[in-house]
């Protein structure tokens, strides 16, 4: 409908121009929004105020000219110019009720659009280092990324969801050494565990599995591990140098056997991550290995392209990418003086890999602490010859978890964190998914654990799900009472739906497609969560004030059609944000009013 109204306004402006009543160089972007107050109509535009400076006339006068020049429409009941210069549109009853027909005909396909037609998009999200289980901080990125993938697919994009596995580099070596040292303790060896090692109980669990598989075959003289090692931080030294020396000694002592520990640690943790995400209703098309970039020629190809473009230079034995030339705050090392490729070199190669796989747009979803990646990845895109505007880097702010008034703290390295699995086990995937996306991803979020578990009206996801379950209950009762129901739209008089509560619910339903389209363009999936809460509220109010199973068969059928349409939209919207739509629920908070 927005497109239709925009076309009416554009045609009116063309008529006025042709009749020399106005003179404009070009028609500006015509913004049409939902009217905030239903009493003012269904839609409104500020185009007259946009044209004020160009036409040098009062906005209300411009608005009146546009209204008078507008062609009649069978979908528009009334068009009105109001001060200071808005134009309000009121739909006809047939047009207003058409949404019920469309929803019942299309079911779960209703609300889709073709904004992303023929566009191939890759969305990378979570991509946490496989050095430990996912914690609740990762959960927000997982919920947001997965929901965005669903919304983009609903909008016609061909989406490839991807997890970038950081299975190469120093952090993985710290993980492997941490597991091996715990393994040695299980073998009866006494040692001082490094300050910078991974401390969690999960490290001990993996170490037990390593010992179960290899017995004492990986046991060595512990003294050799700490031979000529730099002092640790708690001993007055540098913890980074200390762990690096241990890593090097461990590799020398274990030789080929080091890879056994490394691979087993990676496999166990990555497998746990995959399982946790599946339980969280998060699914990927591909788990992309960073190690695969190093084992293939992707990094060398990316470095060669930068060299061919004269975008790298050598200084003090290292190779630097002149990222500052492309807008970054400083240049970046891509190859150290010892010939080792940096993490950023992998990032450049991965970016090139995405576009060479044929994607039109690359969407990255990072934590807020990765703010610096925006400029450097945009710089890399420009240097590689790609359109930097086709690289979207979305930052997800941190989520604070509260249990009552207590704020729970997390530290991955110390192992004192709440895992995503623990959260899902406690509140359920449905509630967790909703709570993570109910605020914009770029705003801080306080996750109320107690509220998420509650089965009351105050819990938004429960409130929404109960609306769906309540509708399902209505139809079960109809079947139990053998009460006839006609869902054939052509034989149902929808014009009987004329109370304020019915009109409000219909208005909410008509906003679903627009909400999805806006979410796909703005990447604001929280608008879906907010919409569902408003829709559920409109339904609960309708249910409380409009008798559905009355004796008037025509009115009953009309209201049942409205219920059915609402059920389809609730179920589809919940699916978009990764929550389920239960058909049965019980709550004294609701049922005492039924």
Structural class: alpha/beta
Cα(first) to Cα(last) distance is: 36 Å
Strand content: 5-15%
Give the helix tally: 24
Task: Characterise the protein shown here.
Among the domains are: 2-91, Gyrase A, domain 2 (2-Layer Sandwich), CATH 3.30.1360.70; 170-270, no CATH class; 460-591, Isoleucyl-tRNA Synthetase, Domain 1, CATH 1.10.730. The mean pLDDT is 92. The longest helix is centred in the last third of the chain and has 24 residues, at 553-576. The chain has a five-stranded parallel β-sheet with strand order 7-6-5-11-12, with helices on both faces. Strands 1-2-4-3 form a four-stranded antiparallel β-sheet. A three-stranded antiparallel β-sheet has the order 8-9-10. Helix 16 crosses helix 17 (429-437) and helix 19 (460-480) packs antiparallel against helix 23. The chain has 594 residues and is of the alpha/beta class. It has helices at 2-18, 47-50, 52-55, 59-69, 93-106, 136-154, 170-186, 201-214, 222-225, 239-254, 258-279, 290-295, 298-308, 343-356, 373-384, 420-427, 429-437, 449-453, 460-480, 500-510, 512-522, 526-545, 553-576, 588-591; strands at residues 32-34, 43-45, 76-82, 86-91, 120-124, 158-165, 286-289, 312-315, 318-321, 332-335, 361-367, 391-396, 399-403, 406-407, 445-448. The chain contains 24 helices and 15 strands.
What's this entry about, in short?
The chain has 594 residues and is an alpha/beta fold.
